[in-house]
Amino acid sequence: MSETHEASVVRENLWMKALRTAGVPLLSVVLAMIIGSIIIKASGMDPLLAWGALLKGAFGSPDKWAAGNFREFGDTIGRATPLAFAGLALAFGFRANLFNIGANGQLLLGSITAAWLGLVLAGLPGVLSIPMILIGSALAGAAWAFIPAILKAKVGAHEVITTMMFSWIGLYLTSWIIAAPLKDAAGNSQTPMLAQSVWLPTFDKILPGLFRTPVNAHLGFVIAVVLAVVVWWVLKRTTLGYGVRAVGFNQWAAQNGGISIAKTTVYALCISGALAGLAGASEVLGTNHRMFDEVSAGSGFGFTGIAVALLAKSHPVAVVFSALLFGALSAGAGMMQLTANVSDRIIMIVQALIIFFVGAETVITWFIKRRQKRALEEKGATDVA
Amino acid sequence: MKKSFRTICALFVVFAMATVVLAGCSSTSTPSSSTTGTTPPASTFKAAMVTDIGGLGDKSFNDLSWAGLEKAKTDLGIETKVLSSKSIADYETNLTNLASAGFSPVFAVGFLMTDAVSKIASTTPDTNFGGIDIFFTNPPKNVVGLNFKEQEAGYLAGIVAGLATKASFDPRLNAQNVIGFVGGMPIPPVQRYEAGFVAGAKSVNPTVKVISLYAGKFDDQAKGKELGLSLISQGADVVFAAAGQTGIGTFTACQQSKKALFIGVDTDQFLTLTNPGDTILTSAVKRIDNAVFSVVKKAKDGAFPGGQNLTFGLADDGVGIAPYHDFDAKVPQAIKDAVDKATADIKAGTVTVPETLK
Amino acid sequence: MPILELRDITKIFPGVRANDGVSLRLERGEIVALLGENGAGKSTLMNVVYGLMAPDGGEVFVDGAQVHIKTPRDAIALGIGMVHQHFMLVQTLTVTENIILGHEPSRFGVIDLVSARSKVSDLSTRYGLKVDPDERVADLSVGMQQRVEILKALFQGARILILDEPTAVLTPQEVRELFGVVRSLVAEGLSVVLITHKLDEVMGVADRVVVMRDGRVVGETTPAETDQVGLARMMVGRDVVLSVDKAPSKPGETVLEVRDLAVLDDRRLEALRCISLVVRAGEVVGIAGVDGNGQRELVEAIVGLRKPTSGSISLRGKDITHAAPHATIHAGVSHVPEDRQRRGLVLEFDLAENLVLGDQSDAPYASAGIMHGRVIDETARERIADYDVRTPSIRVLAGNLSGGNQQKLVLAREMGRDPDLLVAAQPTRGLDVGAIEFVHRRILAERDSGKAILLVSMELDEIMSLSDRILVMYEGRVAAELSSEEADAERIGYFMTGGSNKDGAPLQKPATTVAEGGAS
């Protein structure tokens, strides 16, 4: 009897856990949209029209799909791609209990490396040059994370401070490189356009039968998806991933089990940096085909990546979906401005609210528990009756 | 394993739910993209613009471009629209959305939109595009670049500065015959301002010393102030700053030290700075509003000036010099006359202002 | 009329009925022991009484009148005081300041420290709770801090005193003194509820015993009517073997040799001063001592978690003085850490993942950096069956197991590795009688199979019943080495508090204080 009781308790806990892991992101998105609607309504606009426009701007419409026109969906995927890489970077760090808040700096180093290698390797065929550039960018991102990692491992300097400082250094370093040695002849704030040989092909080039008009979605997204699965596998099935998770959950027990916290920290932060570097490379090779000065471009993918990873609760495969959601929100914002006259700032508010609610998980689980308790009480009352 | 599967499922469900729910909503939205809710006749002429990440309210290029469109709305009775951008990824989306909603011409503000305009223009040949401060290489028929002869505005500012430093209508003007220039970054428009400023000053005051300093960025007021103070300490009593936000710091340096007069840039900065009356002599302005209006007007008349890069100068009312405002009574007539003469000469073509420093 | 009466108290946590219709009476001037295994619901019940948890059902009466206690402040107003297992004192304040904290007597808006101080010393002499009112709490021993907690409750006007596991942190002498204090409190008319799971304490001090199991009261008795075996049966629900039968040890070759070891603690103060010891194959060496006398640092140095400043450690002649944990594991050292939830387990890992911790990168569990899930799971199932870990599946997270099962999990992993040396720190802390019995049997079985075992424990009974040799640690040194035959609680306790081996005279001031406290 006690055995079955214990089993049922465990099962109940699993369901609670499932509700927590799955329900919170869902609830957060819904709650954020409800509050967003209230704000839209309060400013005198029509929320349904607004969300409808957002959806149209993010996914297109059936008649367009029938014509092989996936421009809007391609825009969403294109925007989701750097977010997926950056989200993976943050998620990997989170798994080791590291907050790589300066991922944006590593991303920029990846971008500038891609912008430079793309020029240098323009003569090679893409099958050779593109992998070399991607590896180079990953290494650059990892290198930018290495010094904060070493500082953390050796003297315990907190990575939030150090990676953030390196993020600023990266911002102005790349800004200077773009303004001086890698300056475009046409003007300032951008590097020269890369040769087509190093561009990541877009979906309409890969599958012309399905995508009959040009789309922004490019091979980088496929790479991000594959990488998400690889990261999941590494975390789950390798000794490195085991160590990362052990240190992340409980460094004291990990240390007692012979896992070096210092080494694991360095590996984890550098891998996080490499993933961030790939985000930069994918943006340069796949979307812009050059690098814009971040000071004027203001993309901040590394920072949005924090939100993406939080919403995905640091699960690498969930990161892809989380990135798609954020990509859709930002892709649809323009259409929302255009047709519903709703400021794109509303979307920023919704994004912020999603993060707020994910962060307020404890509050939400508290609500869930309270409801369960009330249900239990009501059940008890009927039992008595 | 199970946990991860559930997380993925959950996110997928969020995604799917949003799609389904909102697909329902979107069918209720009117087919028209009009903001008034009434379907405009197909013949309605619609022009629009996409801001850079500065957005409206920048008291500079975005606001000036929008002013041009607003004027067109009033004077020509057209429909207008502005979409703001949060990052460079938004440029392409916004331009495409406006094009597919039937807006033409669509203006793109700022150099960073060059790639986006070129790309979208090639896929939507029926829509016309205008690029503010963009110089296109081999622009197609539906694209026009709107550029400005900053050197001509700089030249007029140089005349004012070159004569003022010799004059004594204000106690801050010293006897050292030195004027200063602060640039944001050494990019072509700023360099044109500088070249014109130097040429203008030398044309009326051949012995004047012009000191130029560059901040390296457009958004650093502290640096602007530092450069301003440096110029003042070297004897400059009139300072012209073509440096965006950085220039505001330079203005502050002039105002607080009480040792120099300031000349603003792009817009009439008397109207945008805080309490500038005691320090701002005038501003070298770019009339982006006039340029935008003129392109819209031509387009409405069926003569969109595509396939070229236009440069707007004094002759086209594309650049100019702002009023003296609080200094109007103080500034000697000789200076005003010299500015008027130079304006006439440039318009007549008898004087050509150099684009670069010799 | 009982001073405190509980009727049908029910408290539900998700999935568990922590209290299920519990009723309890406390008469004036009575000591009631609330006895039960960990998780039986004793602390939950008292937290309800003290206003820390809201009950889901039931009624509370004080002096015959029904009351609703929502916060500790309500409880204090009704004359109920509680001394928690973990003290809630501000380390940097003095005894007086701590006692008056929250109830500062004031005159003209200024805290009246003078009258507070005199009230505190009145209370302390009246009840024999000798403590210097001006001493900083940080400078007091654990036993003294407990007195401060009791004084604080009395100062707030407590007539009913709840003591939650009060002896867990005390030396035998301190326990005796505490019970002396409790008796004098009762003589003054107070009533005491003593929460405990230790049978001997119940027999020694309680007037009445209420036994709880699985959230219910399963019996009520008096020490006169029963004995320890009877109480244990009530507590566990079956017969329990309380004494460990052990065969005489057959010590073999030296396995662990620690020589002149010096180690610093977290505050970089000297925690171990030139300590030397030897553990041979087939023997259990027990380390006794008051918490904080270098035991933790000794264990951490041996397993590689702490770097020694001088001296040497060797295992079967191989030097492991500066080895990191993974190296000591490979050398044959297994470690059952004192805090299983912090050091022993990753609570967010499932059982299989926890069982491979320490061997995660070694064959047959992994090769070339890739882990072999099937081998890991198979081994996990074997170990779980072998060590009787109660779980429906190896996929359950360690954090969802009970304390006893968690400890079995740690033992299963550390012993399953077939080490030469097992370092076990507080292996039965917080476990119930049944689980303690299991752990003790397994430790002796390992000894009999020729392992060397170093046992560190605060529980003297455990040390005495398992060890073949006993080392008493005091201030980072071995104060005495006793054979299991010559060791008894009194002797060990004497050395634990600084007694010297040579002339029997006290070495340190704390011992003097203890003597005075006992006399008054």
Features:
heterotrimer; A: 385 residues; ABC transporter involved in vitamin B12 uptake, BtuC; 17 helices; 78% helix; globular; disordered C terminus; C: 520 residues; alpha/beta; Rossmann fold; 3 domains; 6-stranded mixed beta sheet
Q: What is the fold's blueprint, element by element?
A:
The complex is a heterotrimer of chains A (385), B (358) and C (520).
Chain A: H1 2-42, H2 47-59, H3 62-66, H4 71-95, H5 103-120, H6 126-155, H7 159-179, H8 203-206, H9 219-237, H10 239-249, H11 251-256, H12 261-288, H13 294-297, H14 301-311, H15 316-340, H16 345-359, H17 361-384
Helix pairs in contact in A: 1-2, 1-16, 2-4, 2-15, 4-9, 4-12, 4-14, 4-15, 5-6, 5-7, 5-12, 5-14, 6-7, 6-12, 9-10, 9-15, 10-12, 14-15, 15-16
Chain B: H1 2-28, E1 46-50, H2 61-76, E2 79-83, H3 89-100, E3 106-109, H4 114-123, E4 129-132, E5 143-148, H5 150-164, E6 178-183, H6 188-204, E7 209-214, H7 221-233, E8 236-242, H8 245-257, E9 261-266, E10 280-286, H9 288-300, E11 308-312, E12 319-321, H10 333-348
Parallel strand pairs in B: 1-2, 1-3, 3-4, 4-5, 5-11, 6-7, 6-8, 8-9, 9-10
Antiparallel strand pairs in B: 10-12
Chain C: E1 4-13, E2 16-26, E3 31-36, H1 42-49, E4 57-62, E5 65-67, H2 72-77, E6 80-83, H3 95-100, E7 106-107, E8 110-111, H4 113-126, H5 142-155, E9 160-164, H6 172-187, E10 191-196, H7 199-205, E11 208-213, E12 216-221, H8 228-236, E13 254-264, E14 270-280, E15 284-288, H9 295-303, E16 308-315, E17 318-319, H10 325-331, E18 333-336, H11 340-344, H12 351-355, E19 366-367, E20 370-371, H13 373-386, H14 403-416, E21 421-425, H15 433-448, E22 452-456, H16 460-466, E23 469-474, E24 477-483, H17 489-496, H18 509-519
Parallel strand pairs in C: 3-10, 3-11, 6-9, 9-10, 15-22, 15-23, 18-21, 21-22
Antiparallel strand pairs in C: 1-2, 1-4, 4-5, 7-8, 11-12, 13-14, 13-16, 16-17, 19-20, 23-24
Helix pairs in contact in C: 14-15
